[in-house]
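Support request from a user on the community tier.

User writes: "When I paste my structure tokens into the form, the page sometimes reloads and wipes my input. The last time it worked, I copied everything first. Here is what I submitted, just in case something in the input itself triggers the reload:"
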């Protein structure tokens, strides 16, 4: 939901800060050699020079395919689409439409096996997840995406070896249509199971790509009926009606409907009631944060950093830059503003 700025380094779950170029180098070290070896073994019939041309280009540009920035991925998609169009428009006695489709399907299956996403999911992508260290789903900001280590070091930091990732990677550009992008670093989006399954193969433009765009600033959560906060009927089932203002972005609205965000967020009545209380107590909290009450209580609040103390009092991260640190941060911020 909150876009990831590729210009800024990532603080990994292992306690190390890495620039994205360092993450890219590690990604290549983990996967490039094996993928290239498997691709080199693929044979293509001489009667299909279009596929041969694409395959040769793929082998010569492996780095671009594996670690090319988000804007590079649609270029490969357009190239592949051109190849398919050219293939299908040049049928002949030797290449009937049925034979062409059969060879396309066969080649795509070979690509799927060569890039081996399913095997890589457990063999190396967990290490990458530790480095990227995204804590919440980049689509919904409702669920955690956590990585843990089997053997933390003596400082409590997660180590790369033996790490487990309790997340799923969504392929922003679906791997069934574009198997050559199934192991592209910037096509692998840390997501929760709900969003990964609901988004499925539905296509979206680059503007909604979590490593390219930032739609957290484009949408706003609202309560349609504030009476839900005091209506016993709603309180019994922890339900309210949420509205999502997509700022006129039709594609963003389609994504929100696709992921059932409105329905999922409507089950957080209890959190909204707490935020309403926090808003009501804001003058009191601000006095605490300013130190006005320290003399009366005898508490030395200077031992806590102001950001942590503010988060404790209000119950959520209040800065947009911190949305990905905890589930429901964007929702909480919008509710607080509405009150």
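"...and here is what came back when it finally went through:"
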């Amino acid at each position: 939901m909150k876009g990831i700025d590729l210009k800024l380094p990532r603080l990994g779950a292992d306690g190390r800060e890495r620039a994205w170029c360092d993450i890219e180098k590690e990604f290549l070290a983990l996967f490039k050699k094996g993928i290239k070896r498997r691709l080199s073994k693929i044979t293509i019939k001489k009667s299909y020079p279009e596929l041969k041309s694409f395959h040769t280009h793929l082998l010569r540009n492996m780095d671009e395919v594996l670690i090319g920035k988000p804007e590079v991925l649609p270029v490969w998609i357009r190239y592949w689409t051109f190849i398919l169009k050219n293939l299908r428009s040049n049928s002949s006695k030797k290449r009937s439409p049925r034979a062409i489709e059969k060879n396309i399907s066969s080649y795509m299956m070979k690509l799927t096996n060569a890039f081996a996403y399913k095997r890589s999911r457990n063999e190396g992508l967990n290490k990458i997840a530790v480095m990227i260290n995204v804590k919440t789903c980049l689509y919904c900001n409702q669920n955690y995406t956590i990585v843990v280590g089997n053997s933390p070091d003596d400082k409590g930091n997660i180590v790369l070896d033996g790490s487990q990732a309790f997340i799923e990677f969504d392929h922003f550009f679906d791997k069934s249509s574009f198997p050559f992008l199934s192991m592209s670093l910037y096509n692998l989006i840390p997501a929760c199971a709900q969003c990964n399954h609901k988004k499925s193969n539905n296509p979206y433009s680059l503007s909604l790509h979590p490593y390219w765009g930032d739609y957290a600033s484009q949408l706003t959560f609202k309560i349609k009926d504030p009476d839900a906060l005091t209506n016993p009927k709603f309180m019994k089932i922890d339900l309210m009606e949420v509205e999502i203002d997509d700022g006129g972005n039709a594609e963003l609205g389609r994504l929100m409907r696709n992921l059932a965000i409105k329905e999922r967020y409507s089950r957080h009545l209890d959190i909204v009631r707490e935020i309403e209380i926090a808003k009501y107590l804001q003058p009191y909290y601000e006095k605490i944060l300013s130190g006005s009450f320290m003399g009366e209580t005898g508490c030395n609040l200077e031992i806590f950093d102001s950001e942590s103390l503010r988060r404790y009092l209000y119950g959520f991260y209040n800065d947009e830059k911190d949305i990905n640190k905890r589930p429901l941060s964007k929702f909480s911020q919008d509710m607080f503003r509405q009150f």
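Agent notes: The reload is a front-end session timeout and is unrelated to the input. Residues 215-338 form one domain. The mean pLDDT is 89. Escalated to web team.
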